[in-house]
Specification:
By secondary structure, the chain is α/β, with parallel strands linked by helices. The protein has ten helices and ten strands. The structure holds adenosine-5'-triphosphate.
């Protein structure tokens, strides 16, 4: 579905991604793990057009997208949930969800999808008229993911959904991601520092260090890899 070929991404003169290649198959959950500052977010931002790579190629279903704008990339079916969630704090839960559907015109489909969100997250339904900024961190993460789903993406990019959340809530969020992949047939690219949880729900994973992919394998193999255990799983 997505093929990243040798991308190099810069912030001014600083090279954040050195030669990153990875691929994501239709229907997969693929995770990218690594330490703080390794380049995980930059990889995600390069795919969705926010920090386009200076060199290399990104193919979505065979089509080069590295020169498209972020909006054109969303229109192709690639949606991101950024680190820190970035919901609209003054808008209600319902309005936040409606914003996610801004490229769609099928009013009844949007309504049905919003009801589906409230079925999946009853707490969001209960708080539909409450301002987004008044929700707890976990609820805001649920809202951010749901808002992205309102665009009906084929590929969902998630940047550190577990950041700043309590362990029990993290478990719920990862279970929700697993369900979204299994039930909605949404392909997921998951950037995470919480390697343990991410590898538990992913099919495959990549490990990144200093802007370079150093390891790739099936998730269960990475979970039992001694180097990964030592460096990222605290074992
Ligand atoms: P984290 O988990 O902390 O988000 P990360 O693996 O996602 O880390 P990136 O945020 O992609 O890493 O950062 C990769 C490198 O690029 C780091 O050295 C970082 O300091 C640098 N960097 C990131 N954003 C910028 C920016 N806006 N301007 C300059 N340098 C940046």
């Amino acid at each position: 579905m997505l093929e990243v070929r040798g991308i190099q991404t810069y912030y001014g003169n600083i090279q954040a991604l050195k030669n990153v290649s990875l691929n994501i198959g239709e229907g997969e959950i693929v995770t990218l793990i690594g330490a703080n500052g390794a380049g995980k977010s930059t990889t995600l931002m390069s795919i969705c057009g926010v920090t386009p790579p200076r060199h290399g190629e990104i193919l979505f279903r065979g089509r080069p997208i590295q020169q498209l704008s972020a909006e054109q990339i969303v229109k192709l079916g690639i949606c991101q949930v950024p680190e820190g969630r970035h919901i609209f704090p003054q808008m209600s839960v319902l309005e936040n969800l409606e914003m996610g559907a801004y490229l769609r015109a099928d009013k009844s489909g949007i309504k049905a999808d919003i009801e589906q969100v409230f079925g999946r997250f009853p707490i969001l339904g209960k708080r539909r008229h409450q301002a987004g900024g008044t929700l707890s961190g976990g609820e805001q993460q649920m809202l951010a993911i749901s808002r992205a789903l309102l665009a009906r993406p084929a590929l969902l990019l998630l940047d550190e959904p577990s950041l700043g959340l309590a362990p029990l809530i993290i478990k719920q969020i990862f279970e929700i991601i697993r369900q979204i992949n299994a039930e909605n047939n949404t392909t997921v690219f998951l950037v995470e520092q919480n390697a343990n949880q991410a590898l538990k729900i992913a099919h495959r994973g990549y490990v990144m260090e200093n802007g370079v992919i150093t390891l790739e394998d099936r998730a269960e193999n990475l979970l039992s890899n001694e180097d990964v255990k030592r460096a990222y799983l605290g074992m």
